[in-house]
Specification:
Structural class: mainly alpha
Strand content: under 5%
Oligomer: single chain
Shape: elongated
Radius of gyration: 30 Å
């Protein structure tokens, strides 16, 4: 009886499979392929290479935003502030990154307007070539990075790359300027973070000393010091002072 039942189940499945396959055929997705063939002329191949380069630049756009603007310094300082106060999730990461992003747009607005006027709009009008547009777009970013990069860091990367000593700032290679700028931003961000940490560290030490003198060693000092640190930050209008100082720190 069991063998007969098993044979009937297998027969039913075998009869159902072709029906299911035929029903699924109309829902099959079409195949899409992207090839660079069919272009034997040099102009056609140059266009294909330009498209590939454009896709590469779009892929690297987030890295360009992080490494060539004020975003790095802003997000590090805001993160250090959150740790100094002692609140790990207030404000949350989305708020910190969003605030740093919009402050970056505010700080970089002169450079972005220059890129729009000297590179994007002329290129869209057809008055300049793609190479000239890229050069004009890079110049405002280079000017911003040169103003906020220490000469010591530039000399370091020029020495590591074994490049010739540039005569002017315009001769500094961009591949050496970008890591030098990032290094300077990291150093500046940690210096600002250290200054932010000091008043909150004093509050933690005072609260810990008072608790130890009272014999309340089992009570975590963070629970007592956190309200005082929040009150101090609110009374001195910390967000106003911090954001104003960060924006003014960029020359």
């Amino acid at each position: 009886m069991k063998k007969t039942t098993l044979i009937l189940i297998i027969a039913a499945l075998t009869a159902f499979l072709p029906v299911a396959a035929s029903a699924a055929d109309p829902l099959a997705l079409p195949n899409v392929s992207l090839t660079l063939g069919g272009q034997n002329s040099p102009q056609g191949m140059a266009t294909a290479v330009q498209i590939l380069l454009l896709l590469t630049v779009l892929t690297l756009a987030p890295a360009i935003l992080l490494m060539m603007t004020s975003f790095t310094r802003l997000v590090i300082v805001l993160s250090i502030l959150r740790q100094a106060i002692g609140v790990q999730q207030a404000p949350p990461n989305q708020v910190v990154i969003g605030l740093a992003l919009f402050l970056t747009f505010f700080i970089m607005s002169p450079a972005f307007n220059s890129i729009n006027q000297k590179a994007l709009q002329p290129y869209m009008d057809g008055s300049i070539s793609q190479e000239s547009a890229l050069t004009n777009a890079l110049d405002p970013l280079r000017s911003f990075m040169l103003k906020n990069t220490r000469e010591k860091d530039i000399e370091l990367f020029l020495k590591l790359s074994k490049a010739e000593t540039p005569r002017t700032k315009a001769d500094i290679p961009t591949l050496a300027l970008i890591p030098a700028f990032v290094t300077s931003e990291l150093k500046t961000a940690f210096q600002i973070g250290f200054l932010i940490y000091l008043p909150f560290l004093v509050i933690d030490m005072v609260v810990a000393s008072v608790l130890m003198s009272m014999g309340m060693m089992m009570l975590p000092p963070v629970m007592i010091s956190l309200p005082f640190k929040l009150m101090l930050f609110v009374l001195v209008d910390g967000w106003y002072l911090l954001i104003g100082s960060l924006v003014q720190s960029f020359s």
